[in-house]
Fold:
Amino acid sequence: MKVNVYVTLKPGVLDPQGKAIHHALEGLGFGGVADVRAGRFIELDVADGTSDADLDAMCARLLANTVIENYRIERP
Amino acid sequence: MKTAVIVFPGSNCDRDMAVALETVTGQAPAMVWHRESALPDGIDFIALPGGFSYGDYLRSGAMAARSPILRAVSDAAGRGVPVLGVCNGFQVLTEAQLLPGALMRNAGLNFVCRTVALTVENSQSLFTASYGAGEQINIPVAHHDGNYFADAATLDRIEGEGRVAFRYTDSVNGSARNIAGVLNDAGNVLGMMPHPERAIDRAHGGTDGLRLFEAALGVLA
Structure:
């Protein structure tokens, strides 16, 4: 079973990489981009029936640093 | 005085740290590989060195913080054994939740490698007792992910408890409140981005770092 995990910086946490990407987009002539925030996408291939609690623990204990990041789990 | 340096794949300041510890104690530290699940008996001081443990995969320090030896380090810290984390070692300590906050990509996105001025904010800790309160010292930094972040409530709390050990005199990497080094609540765990082990010999351009090891290792008169 493929499970998608999206790890993003919490609102209010400065994202210098997103800012740099934003500037680069403007440099390419793309106007009208108000903001860019960069995150991480992790694809897990787990046993069918893996519990939500286990997936949540994987995120909370390793995949995201909850001091600065939020995570969202997307299962099929 | 028995000391240990924890070595991860990708550590690259472990030997400099070992030289610093041996310079002060006269005894070579135990070099403890990350796969070990226990520290040698009777360790009095643990150092987590700088470098790029596990290639900085996922987040700086994230993998190392979940390695077997970190459980032993965490237990030792809980018993009051002094633990010093420098640079990547600081990142490991925050990822292991032995210290509050997190270290993010430098605000300027550049790797910063130069000697910086620090203000000693807490000169009472076991690591900083050789410095004067408010003293300015010079210690090299070399990092890409040194931008200290914690929420405002946490920052207020650690400041109020005197747990900010060092502060950059000028912005170096975007760190919240220019924080360069943080103590745990018991005062026996210190994480800092600057490298005191790179300032222990006149040939390094200064010896301000040596005083930290002298204080922490109890060699001061």
User: Anything to note?
Assistant: The longest strand of chain B covers residues 112-120. The two ends of chain B are 16 Å apart (CA to CA).
